[in-house]
């Protein structure tokens, strides 16, 4: 619903911007300047109104960003409240075992997990915030695991480990809430930074207004041409820049090559546009990358797979897909911990990337399953490349500490268009089944569909 409202607002804003008649604005300014050129007071009023209008547009952009951060903060506070509430049914159950308490615990757990999913998947978080929320989720999940064990025992009164488990449960939830406070503080710091920046722009515009008064008086003596060159032209450039910026054209830059206040304002505008454009590019890149491995995420990979299949239909060149699944990955997580599992995934991703070609597309399809799309590659060459990847993974153990390494192998399934499939779904299915054939045949090998 929020996205629909935002989209509607963007469309309405675009239509409003389109309704501006630039020639009418220029004609209006020129007419008033010619008619009242003898009245410096009225000219100054026009300049003041223009500066005020520019200020309102600038502050409006900052308010939009601030409101977005406030909405984000409210959702994070709601997530923190859910984490706190998850421990309550466990405490009640320890005091008085009741099936309704278990039901309440499962409902709260499901709702909290959903909010975590929405927060990490749709909310615009900084890399630091994202990592903190992931850490919060990890602490919460550890607490939930303890809570599940306590709820599965109907006689915790005589259970000697129940008090210790209760303390661990409290510690995990307390740590999760503490981390969420850090996320809140980052949001509050960002909001405060936006407020300070808006105040700076307000003061700068007020300063430009005061200096503009004396500038207009001096340039008025030089005549209409000087005023038009030094004031009206850069003013129109800034106004056009603001309109373009309001339409979302972040690549637009204003060109005001003067050493006065308008030049400083134009330079500040360009710096702000560059920073926002750079931030948007970073966010766009993060949206298509897996946070752990740096590979393409599943949604982006499927989109690129569709594009490659469209190219195949045009040029007829084969496409091969490798589905790479790390062997016994659950045992790695269980025996050495999730951090070791994460390191295994990162290392495997690096090895696969280093042994694939520049034009190959590598992604994380889910869990410990990685995929590599090989454009213009037939089945024979794909199997050879898969064999090199399989051998490389087996040759390089994963370092989990300065003194400890663990071996990690992979089972790889290979499928090719057009031999095994003609659609994206069929290609993935064929390669996936081939990977399971490699698993059933003893792991650490390559099988083709």
Question: Can you give the helix content as a percent range?
Answer: over 70%
N-to-C series of helices and strands: HHHHHHHHHEHHEEHEEEHE
How many β-strand runs?
A: 7
Q: Could you name the CATH topology of the domain at 298-448?
A: Alpha-Beta Plaits
- The structure class reads alpha+beta
Side by side, the strands of the main sheet go: 2-3-1-6-7
Spell out the CATH superfamily of the domain at 298-448: Reverse transcriptase/Diguanylate cyclase domain
Tally of helical segments: 13
User: Can you summarize the main beta sheet?
Assistant: 5 strands, mixed
Mean pLDDT: 77
Q: Which CATH class of the domain at 298-448?
A: Alpha Beta
Proportion of residues in β-strands: 5-15%
Radius of gyration: 31 Å
Q: Gap between N and C termini, in Å? A: 43 Å
Please describe what this structure looks like.
The chain has helices at 2-18, 22-35, 40-95, 99-122, 127-152, 162-222, 224-246, 261-288, 298-315, 329-336, 338-355, 379-395, 424-440, and strands at 319-326, 361-366, 369-375, 398-401, 404-406, 410-417, 446-448. It has 449 residues and is α+β, with helices and mostly antiparallel strands. The strands form two sheets. The chain has a five-stranded mixed beta sheet with strand order 2-3-1-6-7, with helices on both faces. A two-stranded antiparallel ribbon has the order 4-5. A hairpin with a 2-residue loop joins strand 4 (398-401) and strand 5. Helix 3 (40-95) packs antiparallel against helix 4 (99-122), helix 4 (99-122) packs antiparallel against helix 5 (127-152) and helix 7 packs parallel to helix 8 (261-288). The chain starts with a helix and ends with a strand.
């Amino acid at each position: 619903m929020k996205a629909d409202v935002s989209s509607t607002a963007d469309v309405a804003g675009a239509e409003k911007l389109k309704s501006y008649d630039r020639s009418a604005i220029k004609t209006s300014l020129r007419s008033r300047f010619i008619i009242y050129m003898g009245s410096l007071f009225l000219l100054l009023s026009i300049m003041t109104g223009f500066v005020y209008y520019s200020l309102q547009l600038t502050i409006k952009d900052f308010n939009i960003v601030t409101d977005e951060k406030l909405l984000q903060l409210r959702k994070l506070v709601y997530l923190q409240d859910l984490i706190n509430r998850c421990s309550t049914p466990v405490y009640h159950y320890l005091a008085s075992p009741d099936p309704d308490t278990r039901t309440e615990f499962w409902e709260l757990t499901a709702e909290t997990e959903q909010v975590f999913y929405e927060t990490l998947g749709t909310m615009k978080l900084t890399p630091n915030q994202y990592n903190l929320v992931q850490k919060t989720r990890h602490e919460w999940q550890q607490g939930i695991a303890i809570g599940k064990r306590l709820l599965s025992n109907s006689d915790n009164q005589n259970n000697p480990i129940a008090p210790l488990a209760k303390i661990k449960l409290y510690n995990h939830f307390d740590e999760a809430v503490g981390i969420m406070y850090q996320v809140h503080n980052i949001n509050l710091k960002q909001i405060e930074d936006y407020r300070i920046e808006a105040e700076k722009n307000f003061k700068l515009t007020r300063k430009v207004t005061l200096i503009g008064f004396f500038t207009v008086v001096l340039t008025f003596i030089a005549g209409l041409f000087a005023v038009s060159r030094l004031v009206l032209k850069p003013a129109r450039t800034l106004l056009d820049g603001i309109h373009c910026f309001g339409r979302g054209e972040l690549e637009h830059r204003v060109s005001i090559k003067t050493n006065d206040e308008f030049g400083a304002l134009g330079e500040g505008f360009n710096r702000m546009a560059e920073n926002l454009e750079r931030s948007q590019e970073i966010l766009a890149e993060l949206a298509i990358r897996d946070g752990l491995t740096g590979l393409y995420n599943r949604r982006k990979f499927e989109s690129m797979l569709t594009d490659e299949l469209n190219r195949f239909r045009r040029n007829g060149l084969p496409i091969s897909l490798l589905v790479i699944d790390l062997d016994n990955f659950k045992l790695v997580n269980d025996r050495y911990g999730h951090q070791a599992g994460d390191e295994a995934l990162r290392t495997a991703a690096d090895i696969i990337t280093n042994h694939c070609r520049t034009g190959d597309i590598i992604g994380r399809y889910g869990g410990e399953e990685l995929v590599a799309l090989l454009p213009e590659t037939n089945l024979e060459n794909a199997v050879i490349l898969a064999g090199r990847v399989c051998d490389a993974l087996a040759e390089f153990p994963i370092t989990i500490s300065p003194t400890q390494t663990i071996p990690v192998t992979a089972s790889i399934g290979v499928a090719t268009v057009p031999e095994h499939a003609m659609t994206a779904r069929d290609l993935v299915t064929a390669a996936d089944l081939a990977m399971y054939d490699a698993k059933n045949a003893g792991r650490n090998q390559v099988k083709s569909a």
